[in-house]
Amino acid sequence: MTVQVIVLNGGSSSGKSGIARCLQAILPDPWLTLGVDTLIDAMPPSMQTSEEGIGFAADGGVSLGAQFKALDEAWAVGVAAMVHAGARVIVDEVFLGGPASQQRWRTALEGLDVLWVGVRCDATVAAGREIGRGDRPRGMAEAQAEQVHQGVEYDLVVDTTHTEALECARTIAARLR
Q1: Could you say which of 29, 37, 135, 159 is catalytic?
Q2: What stretches in the chain show pLDDT beneath 50?
């Protein structure tokens, strides 16, 4: 199997982005990193102030409206099209819907070789990182730490609670050989 897509799923501040950057540095071929933050950054600001878009509550809760869900689905299909065209992609994702979120990606990535990776991190550690980042509502990391993994199936699980991103990336890279 020649893996074409690595899907990293984990809660906010779990270390997915750091692992993705490390993977890009250590893998011999070029890999793009695309994720839910990329999608959100590409959306007009009105999508964060509308019930139809994505909302972030003061307690860290996230609500997804119909327009966001439609764009998110189109995004997954677009990422898959890039892979079908020859790009290798690391997907940095947060499966708020658990198995339904994974199924949406499974459908979009059908026919491609995918490595499904769970990125775990103790809720308290992730909450500390969240505070240090200062760019997320407090409570998001703790709320998502377990939620995003419930009912999701992985080929590999890494835990950044006590393991650095580079070591996690090396573990993932070893599965590609």
Answers
A1: 37
A2: none
